[in-house]
Design the sequence.
């Protein structure tokens, strides 16, 4: 599932095949198939309650699918042994909707956590890496601040610094603009794009925010709760221009009427 030598086809970082997801006997979405290519900013979109965040949980290994597979660089996550799963988890970073920072820890201590947990690096080197990660997200000099002492947008960026601590190949964002004012949301979009370009990371974003969808997304899937499957996929701007599905058009033109 990876790129062949000399091929112009983008390398597939994540491949979802015949995926059904839900809870117990309740099926939330079924028959999902899509590919996230290397360097994508891939948008998972749809209205409230369609299963966007649940799909993210399945992809990052927090919720087992009812059926189907998730492949990372050609390796099946859910059929892998514990060592394979651990190797895959080391390649990904997740920014949750709430930022999930520990309120009793400084920003530096929060970002240091995964480095202390998963590496044998010295305390001095971890301090250097933490300062670098915070600088990358525009928080140089804020190492000793607590989450309660900074704005919501800064907390999101601190959460992103922690998600990047282990130099992941793939970054996941769950509603990154939720609770942010328009200016902070725009700055976060710019930062996501800059990190993709400078670090060569692949990015997957769960969002319903139109501004973010069109500003950063180059590929996407649209989840429909009525049919319980994906009803559109591709570049969001192309979907807006070419889709004939009223659900997709209504979603992508909200606020224009």
Sequence:
């Amino acid at each position: 599932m990876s790129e062949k030598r000399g091929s112009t086809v983008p390398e597939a970082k994540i491949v979802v095949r015949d995926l059904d997801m839900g809870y117990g006997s309740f099926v939330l979405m079924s028959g999902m198939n899509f590919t996230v290519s290397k360097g994508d900013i891939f948008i998972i979109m749809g209205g409230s309650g369609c299963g966007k965040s649940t799909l993210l949980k399945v992809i990052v290994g927090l919720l087992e699918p009812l059926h189907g597979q998730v492949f990372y660089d050609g390796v099946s996550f859910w059929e892998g042994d514990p060592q394979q799963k651990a190797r895959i988890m080391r390649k990904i970073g997740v920014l949750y909707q709430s930022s999930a920072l520990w309120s009793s820890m400084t920003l530096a201590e929060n970002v240091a956590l995964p480095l202390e947990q998963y590496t044998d690096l010295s305390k001095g080197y971890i301090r250097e890496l933490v300062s670098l990660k915070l600088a990358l997200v525009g928080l140089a000099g804020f190492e000793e601040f607590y989450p309660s002492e900074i704005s919501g947008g800064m907390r999101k960026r601190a959460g992103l610094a922690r998600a990047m601590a282990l130099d992941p190949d793939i970054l996941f964002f769950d509603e990154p603009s939720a609770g942010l004012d328009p200016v902070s949301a725009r700055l976060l979009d710019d930062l996501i794009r800059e990190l993709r370009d400078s670090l060569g990371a692949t990015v997957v974003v769960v969002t319903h925010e139109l501004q973010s969808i069109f500003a950063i997304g180059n590929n996407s899937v649209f989840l429909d709760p009525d049919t319980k499957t994906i009803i559109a996929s591709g570049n969001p701007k192309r979907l807006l221009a070419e889709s004939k599905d009223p659900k997709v058009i209504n979603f992508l033109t909200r606020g224009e009427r």
